[in-house]
Specification:
Blueprint (H helix, E strand, L loop, with lengths): L1 E8 L23 E3 H8 L4 H10 E3 L7 E5 L16 H6 L6 H5 L2 E6 L2 E6 L4 H8 L7 E9 L6 E3 L13 H12 L6 H17 L5 H17 L4 H5 L5 H16 L6 H13 L9 H22 L1 H13 L17 H26 L5 H16 L2 H13 L5 H8 L2
Parallel strand pairs: 1-6, 5-8
Antiparallel strand pairs: 1-7, 2-4, 3-4, 5-6
Helix pairs in contact: 5-15, 6-13, 7-8, 7-14, 7-17, 11-14, 12-14, 14-15, 14-16
């Protein structure tokens, strides 16, 4: 696929992999998918050592119509081609062009919107996380002319002239512009911005297709005017602060994920600190745990947040841009489309879980809790949970079962 225009956050051009020096590895815990061209190269390899490894470690898909033609079999959740020096044996022997699509692109992600290539980075990479999260200024974006070729066609795609899935894709650009503008509006606390976003997404989802041209421009103008004049603030002040429910819901979701496969060592260390920080021995919430959670929030997390709220703002903005929020892609070959408000639920749930984990970790580290620990948590969380597709499905179902899929219900999870 060839593109002439690129749209990306300005941080993208500053990324470079530090290879062997990285504390993490890209080659652990992932599904490493193999496309048809890469599979042909691997199965016809003449290198005797690599040929034996390919024969042993490739799990081939026999469906010729599937863009994914195989997977790399992992050994204890690690790629069998990863050397002791944390380098790729395939790249060493055959060169970078022989890498699978997964390995050649990560941590870069790609979408196409009306023929423009959109590029960003995954927070699950340590180098990318530092680049994305640690910028104190609001994230900026740039559109430029640049001839670019992608090997893969399996990218998130939006054609604004198409109304697939009965969503207002013709208005995707102004809707996303408003969303990012709102997420970066520092006149409001982050939980308030997310609450306002909840109301907007709920209203947007209710607009019927025959009224898109009339209602959506009005909706955008209405919300901008109300936010500018502070008309929503009084209504948000009545939202309940319920830290016990917040803690119960988040720990239930964490417990679900901790029963699954691949829990990176660094994420498990963060979980240890979180549980120790509020005195949890298992995932049962008692009065002592709630009291410790409240204490950790007030004494250690809130002072930290006052100076570093930009961390989670950058996380949310990057996610919104990367996921084509709130409409999602019309097609991407990986995930099924979900509803507008479900897109909001999963974005906000990730924020809520991260905030709860940060509070517990702050309770554990107390005055020594710092930026490096926060960034480490966000990066390992994204790798362990953010990329987990089954977690996304189950988390949405769980919130709906609890009947918390409303602005009031979601505010319980984020207001501290």
């Amino acid at each position: 696929m060839k593109f002439e225009k690129v749209f990306e956050p300005t941080y993208f051009q500053h990324f470079s992999c530090n290879g062997q020096e990285c504390q993490d590895t890209c080659c652990a815990g992932w599904d490493i998918v193999i496309d048809a061209a890469t599979l042909r190269q691997y199965t016809s390899c003449k290198d005797p050592n690599l040929k034996t490894l390919f024969s042993k470690n490739l799990d081939c898909n026999r469906d010729p119509g599937n863009s994914i033609q195989g997977y790399m079999k992992l050994e204890q959740q690690r790629c069998p081609f990863l050397t002791q020096e944390h380098l790729c044996l395939i790249q060493q022997r055959l060169g970078e062009d022989a890498l699978s699509l997964t390995c050649s692109t990560y941590p870069r992600t790609f979408n196409q919107v009306d023929g423009v290539l959109e590029r960003s980075l995954c927070v699950s990479c340590i180098q990318a996380a530092q680049l994305i999260l640690l910028n104190k200024e609001p994230m900026q974006f740039i559109k430029k002319d640049e001839l670019t070729t992608l090997r893969s066609r399996a990218v998130g795609t939006i054609h604004s002239s198409s109304q697939i899935a009965l969503k207002p894709y013709a208005y995707f650009a102004p809707i996303r512009e408003f969303v990012i503008e709102l997420l970066q509006n520092r006149d409001y606390l982050l939980w308030q911005r997310l609450s306002l976003l909840s109301v907007f997404c709920s209203r947007l989802a209710q607009v019927q297709e025959e009224y898109y041209d009339e209602d959506i421009p009005y909706l955008l103008s209405y919300f901008r005017d109300k936010i500018q004049h502070d008309d929503f603030r009084q209504a948000m002040n009545v939202f309940e602060t319920d830290l016990e429910t917040q803690l119960q819901v988040v720990t239930a979701l964490l417990n679900y994920r901790m029963q699954g496969e691949f829990l990176g060592e660094r994420f498990q260390e963060c979980m240890h600190d979180f549980m120790q920080g509020i005195g949890l021995k298992d995932y049962t919430i008692d009065i002592e745990a709630v009291e410790a959670y409240v204490l950790a929030k007030e004494q250690y997390y809130v002072p930290f947040l006052k100076s570093h709220e930009y961390l989670l703002e950058n996380y949310l903005v990057n996610s919104a841009f990367q996921k084509l929020f709130p409409l999602g892609p019309q097609e991407n070959g990986i995930t099924d489309p979900i509803e507008i408000y479900e897109e909001y639920i999963i974005l906000t749930l990730h924020y809520a879980i991260l905030q709860t984990l940060l509070i517990g970790m702050a309770g554990f580290h107390k005055e020594s809790f710092n930026l490096n620990q926060a960034v480490n948590l966000i990066q390992t969380y994204e790798k362990t949970i953010g990329h987990n597709l089954s977690f996304r499905i189950q988390a949405i179902k769980f919130i709906k079962t609890l009947q918390m899929d409303t602005t009031g219900g979601m505010s319980v999870l984020i207001k501290i």
